[in-house]
Design brief:
- The protein is built from twelve helices and 19 strands.
- By secondary structure, it is α+β, with helices and mostly antiparallel strands.
- β8 and β9 form a beta hairpin.
- Strands 3, 4, 5, 6, 8 and 9 form a six-stranded antiparallel sheet that branches.
């Protein structure tokens, strides 16, 4: 029994915890990009993007990308522009596919895949939206790794032994993560993963399928008792292997410091306890360090809630059909004078906190301007394609209380303090000029 529990725990870790680069699963064999994948991606843009262009605009952009790629291959693809478009996305894609079959006759499947890739990349780029783009194989995971997280899961634990029907029993869930939020429960049976029956999968194969780049989707088939099989589409999230997403300390007899490492759904509970402890030890002001901080927008709402009265606007989410105002709800407000530290790697969720606190006159921002490319201030879906590329599509934007869209220029610091020595890390210690400036503002002689 004990050895079985140990094995199950090992499986749990592989399923739901960030895996280091050395533990990445062996990459499956890849196939060149197919036109069906191009169509599916563009259909998603049309159906889910907050402000999609007309289908013909997407197709025309795709044609430009394809023709440029053919020219680089020494082919004359100009005749592609002679195709008549109807404005019906599926019909026009089929027209382009037939034309490309003729133009690329005799070319290898890999070369055809390159042309399709260039076309899809141009079609997504034409939206001029940083969240909607085609990432080359490996690039999406590498970008996430630079931010401190790469492989993720959906937050469930399974028993290592299958039941008599070859199903895997879900024995535990991570609170607040995708599986639980979608209503999956302990005792549910996992029937299939990504279209593959669990009865046909070995445990290590299951692990490789469930793990994947953060932000990509995975399809699960779940059965509860003798009920019907229900299908779920879950988006992988970074499941923090270090449950302590923040740390705190007294940096001056009258000033406290809280460093947020990852802005998770429930981080605000920990931060409140840390700040109250700092106050009990004499802190009259606070440095909130959001530098190099990844996270999720839901975490931004909870953290901002600590500093603003109930009913204040934190952000507005603008989707395809409607918009939602997210407001504070906690009547208990922490009133310490606050300086927020930001830098180029303050991600969208953390920047939402910084921007909202500034918009309400609650904090001064010190450090460096955020990089618009790091501003994941939007919700997006990510789909891994057959060639290993990842197509991401924005499905909603976030807007700050005073109207700022973070991905349009990023967030500017009130007091810019560059870090001239790249070897000095943002550690709130000796040589950290941004931290020293924040402390100077809060603790005056």
């Amino acid at each position: 029994m004990f050895s079985r529990l140990q094995a199950a725990l090992a499986l749990i870790l592989l399923l739901v915890v960030l895996a280091p680069a050395s533990a990445e699963p062996e990459k499956p064999s890849r196939q060149p990009l197919q036109m069906a994948e191009v169509l599916a991606t563009l259909v998603r843009v049309q159906g889910e993007h907050p402000s999609p262009p007309e289908p013909a605009f997407l197709v025309r952009a795709g044609m430009r990308g394809a023709v440029r790629q053919m020219q680089e291959m020494g082919l004359a693809g100009d005749s592609l522009f002679e195709q008549k478009l109807t404005g019906d996305l599926k019909a026009d894609i089929m027209t382009i596919e037939r034309a490309l079959d003729g133009l690329l006759a005799g070319r290898s499947a890999a070369e055809k895949g390159q042309v399709l890739w260039a076309g899809l990349a141009e079609a997504l780029a034409c939206l001029e939206d940083p969240g909607t783009r085609l990432h080359p194989p490996g690039a999406y995971a590498a970008t996430l790794a630079e931010l401190g997280y790469s492989l993720g899961g959906v937050g469930f634990f399974v028993d290592e032994e299958k039941d008599e029907q070859g199903r895997l029993v879900i024995v535990e869930l991570f609170e607040g993560f995708p599986a639980e939020r979608q209503g999956i429960c302990r005792g549910d049976r996992l029937v299939a993963v990504a279209g593959r029956p669990t009865a046909d999968l070995k445990v290590n194969e299951l692990i490789d399928i469930v793990r994947g780049p953060v932000g990509t989707r995975i399809e699960l088939a779940i059965q509860r008792g003798d009920g019907p099989i229900k299908r779920y589409g879950l988006t992988r999230e970074w499941l923090n292997p270090n449950p302590k997403g923040s740390e705190s300390r007294l940096v001056h007899p009258r000033a406290g410091y809280v460093k947020v490492k990852y802005l998770g759904h429930r981080l605000h509970h920990d931060v409140r306890r840390q700040i109250e402890d700092l106050q009990a030890r004499g802190a009259k002001s606070l440095i909130l360090d959001l530098r190099n901080c990844p996270g999720v927008p839901a975490g931004a709402i909870g953290l901002t809630d600590l500093f603003l009265p109930s009913g204040r606007l934190v952000m507005t989410e603008i989707g395809r059909a409607d918009q939602t105002d997210w407001k504070t709800s906690d009547p208990t407000v922490l009133k310490l004078p606050t300086v927020v530290l930001i830098n180029r790697y303050t991600s969208g969720a953390a920047a939402l906190v910084a921007g909202a606190l500034r918009d309400h006159g609650r904090a001064i921002l010190v450090g460096e301007d955020t990089d618009p490319k790091e501003m994941q201030a939007f919700e997006k879906v990510a789909e891994e394609l057959g060639d290993g590329s990842v197509a991401t599509v924005t499905i909603s934007y976030y807007r700050l209380p005073l109207g700022k869209m973070l991905w349009q220029g990023g967030l500017r610091a009130d007091l810019e303090v560059p870090m001239p020595d790249p070897t000095v890390r943002a550690t709130a210690g000796s040589g950290d000029l941004q931290f020293e400036k924040a402390l100077e503002l809060l603790v005056k002689p």
